[in-house]
# Entry
Amino acid sequence: MRLRFILSETFKGLSRNIAMTISVILVSFVSLLFVGSSALLQDQISTMKGAWYDKVEVSVFMCPPSSSSANCVNGEATQEQIDAVERLVNSDTLKPYVKNYEIESKAQAYANFMKAYGKSAIGRNATEAMMPVSFRIKLHDPEKYQVVAEQFAGRDGVERVVDQSDTLEPLFLVMNRASWITGGLAAVMAVAAVLLISTTIRLSAMSRSKETGIMRLVGASNLFIQLPFMLEGALAALVGALLAVGALWAGVNTIVEGWLAKSIKFTTAFIGTGDVLTLAPFLVLAAILLAAASSAFSLSKYTRV
# Structure
């Protein structure tokens, strides 16, 4: 009987304040859409880092026959210098950092160079003798590049040390900043949702002040009086959360899985609809708790015994 009464009062309040209810749904939808987008963007960044960083190499280029580098004033790197670099790669100092490595010979470097530039003027003028010997080193943790690079920089016979992750960092920086902006907007919208839910529930409580007064007179507890109003806010926020989850799922399914994953062939490091479904319970729970807390706070003045 009590449950039926609480539910009837809840839906009565929702129907009386239909415009405000729709407003709560919309602001909850927008705020949780931003929250979900920010979380998914962070997942995408982590996924891309995991996939791309695993392929990143630190390249140590030995001096070619002709080079303007200060380390190559004595000409092309000698076999002794190449052997010294290889011993350093295998040393106990770098063992904790180096996952594996390979040496790219002049012949291999020339073949790779011709694949990339063979049809250009520079490719037609290139010869195998002009190519440098290089070490391609994979690290256990690509972010420890600087530790490894310091061991090779300035050594005799080493022209330069290149970390491929340098080309990825600007992309990750842009994506991180986009995530921060999205998170900031989400925070602003969450504050707006709290204020709107509090105002809506307060107005609902004021419109039913006589009913709540009678309930107090017959001995109803604070929780019993407040529960219908709290459910109003929670249900409206729940609808907004479900709409946000649906929008995120549709966006990931259409834009990420349906377009990006098929258009960008060099990597499959993309989030999927499964990530949205994993995130969904947290968004729904956050919406309900936010609405319930906002409602309880706003009701303290109008429903206390």
Notes: The domain at 57-164 is CATH 3.30.70.3040 (Alpha-Beta Plaits). The chain has a mean pLDDT of 79.
